[in-house]
Design a protein that fits this description.
By secondary structure, the chain is mostly beta strands. The chain has no helices and nine strands. A hairpin with a 2-residue loop joins β4 (33-52) and β5. It is globular, with a radius of gyration of 16 Å. The mean pLDDT is 89.
Length: 113
């Protein structure tokens, strides 16, 4: 296997609860499910910086790629913890199709600081 896929991390799947008004809320704290994932590669994929209400906001984009032949269950509501960072999944994870099936998945992530 290539050194590209030697990272491991944790998928943080939120618990869902309702507030006193009946609105659903995602809980990424102690109630969240934590699912180990390995054979991944997480790399920077761009970012932006902007001033909002006199506050500097930096958004860094990341790309998660699973090793060939692996299909981790990454959902758009998940967060991924890897190398000390907690990253939000932005959108749906996408399969990378090849003529004989699916090679791997890719998911766009973001870190907001």
């Amino acid at each position: 296997m290539s050194v590209l896929y030697e990272q491991s991390g944790v998928i943080i799947r939120p618990a869902v609860s309702e507030d006193r008004y009946g609105n659903k809320q995602k809980d990424y704290g102690d109630a969240a499910e934590r699912i180990p994932v390995d054979q991944i590669n997480v790399q920077p994929s761009g970012g932006s910086s902007e001033d909002t209400n006199d506050k500097q906001l930096t958004v860094t984009g990341w790309l998660l790629i699973s090793a060939p032949g692996t299909m981790p269950d990454v959902r758009e509501t998940d967060r991924i913890e890897v190398d000390g960072l907690v990253l939000e999944v932005t959108g749906k994870a996408g399969p990378w199709p090849v003529p004989h099936g699916i090679r791997h998945i890719e998911a766009q992530l973001k870190e907001v600081t």
